[in-house]
Write a structure and sequence with these properties.
119 residues; single chain; two-stranded antiparallel sheet; 71% helix
Length: 119
């Protein structure tokens, strides 16, 4: 189940927002990610067509089981890699930016090995 980095970022953002807000809308995602609402609308259409999200008639966005699985995986990688880099002495802003890049390209095997090593 491979999807592109942009889709992973959108799913991760929906997950994070769903923990903070009662409902998630395209405008919330646009504000959080700093994108135009039109760009977010195109992305939401693609995610809906791939069955990673549902959008109800009020415009409320919900992750499907497949979308949640991808979002949770990316979010876990982000949290773990950024905290590991900070513990190694990397400044927070750099650790967060690097984790954002690494979370998409690292293999499951390498991530699992890092996770095991950190524990």
């Amino acid at each position: 189940m491979h999807i592109n980095e942009s889709a992973e970022d959108y799913l991760e953002t929906i997950l994070i927002l769903s923990k903070q807000l009662p409902v998630v809308r395209s405008v919330d995602i646009a504000n959080e990610m700093g994108f135009k609402k039109s760009s977010v609308s195109v992305a939401m259409k693609n995610l809906r067509e791939k069955s990673h999200i549902t959008v109800d008639k009020s415009g409320f966005i919900t992750l499907t089981p497949s979308g949640r699985e991808i979002a949770e995986m990316i979010y876990e990688r982000h949290r773990m890699i950024s905290s590991w880099l900070m513990r190694l002495g990397v400044p927070e802003n750099i650790a967060l930016a690097d984790a954002c890049k690494m979370e998409h390209v690292i293999s499951k095997e390498s991530f699992d090995a890092i996770k095991e090593y950190i524990k």
